[in-house]
Design brief:
The complex is a heterodimer. By secondary structure, chain A is mostly helical. Chain A is built from four helices and no strands. In chain A, about 65% of the residues lie in helices and about 0% in strands. By secondary structure, chain B is mostly helical. Classes of the chains: A mainly alpha, B mainly alpha.
Chain lengths: ~70, ~190
């Protein structure tokens, strides 16, 4: 299990709900000097930016729609 | 060797919450799906014009059309269907990737049926493996991806299956995608 997964989950979600410009300041406060926690959340936020279409085109969607 | 349980028996066990029954059901249905595919193939003489979409569609209908035992609910059906699709896709991709087989059904099966065929078979395998890793520490997120991607469920439907709110599903979906995308890019770090 990745370190502090529960915290990572929570902070990722909260950060994502903020404007991109406010995220850094939010994480400054929320991570309170926990460098590895912050790095992990930022890494996932950066990864999320490229996922607009990722996994959204399900191979099964048409099949279900036809039922 | 014991006789393998039939679909009706397994569906009955699903009602009492036997997770093992889900797995067995998927295996059983998958083997039915394979025979079905083979019979189509014989008729089609291995031609790649096989209507794989129709074939998979029929598999879904078979799954839905279990008259002896009622599905507990639509969600239960969806959950099994998603696992079945995952298995079909991954097996197909492995066969495709290995390039070992001749004109077996793996070669044509789903060739044009799935969006993933536009990408590489190795993508499906990598996704399957990453999903298995995700399941080790966050099974609910992994299940969500299985339902959404392999099962084709909407956010709302997935919320129904998992018994959580739409908001929770949306949040988990966002994080699961971010985590998986990073994994599939080759992983910029080790996750201990």
């Amino acid at each position: 299990m990745p370190e502090k997964w529960d915290q990572v989950k929570e902070l990722f979600t909260l950060a994502l709900e903020r404007d991109p410009g406010e995220r850094s300041g939010f994480l400054d406060q929320a991570c309170a000097g926990d460098h590895s926690l912050r790095t992990e959340v930022e890494s996932l936020l950066a990864s999320f930016d490229g996922t607009a279409t990722f996994l959204e085109d399900s191979p099964a969607a048409d099949l279900l729609a036809a039922r | 060797m014991d006789t393998p349980p039939d679909v009706a028996t397994l569906l009955g066990e699903l009602d009492v919450g036997n997770d093992k029954a889900v797995t067995e059901l998927v295996v059983l249905l998958y083997s039915e799906l394979r025979s079905l595919a083979s019979s189509y193939l014989r008729r089609e003489r291995g031609d790649h014009t096989l209507q794989t979409t129709a074939l998979v569609h029929e598999a879904y209908l078979r799954l839905a059309d279990q008259r002896e035992v009622r599905w507990k609910n639509k969600e239960q059906f969806m959950g099994v269907a998603a696992q079945l699709m995952r298995r079909v896709l991954v097996d197909y991709s492995r066969g495709h990737d290995a390039q070992k087989r001749g004109k077996g059904f793996e070669k044509v099966f789903l060739e044009e049926a799935v969006g993933f065929s536009k990408g590489k078979a190795s993508d499906v395998i990598a996704l399957d493996e990453a999903l298995t890793r995700l399941a080790e520490f966050d099974p609910q997120q992994a299940r969500l991806v299985e339902l959404r991607f392999f099962g084709g469920l909407s956010i709302d439907e997935a919320a129904g299956v998992l018994g959580v709110s739409r908001t929770t599903v949306k949040r988990n979906w966002n994080l699961a995608k971010a985590w998986l995308a990073r994994e599939l890019r080759g992983g910029d770090k080790k996750h201990a």
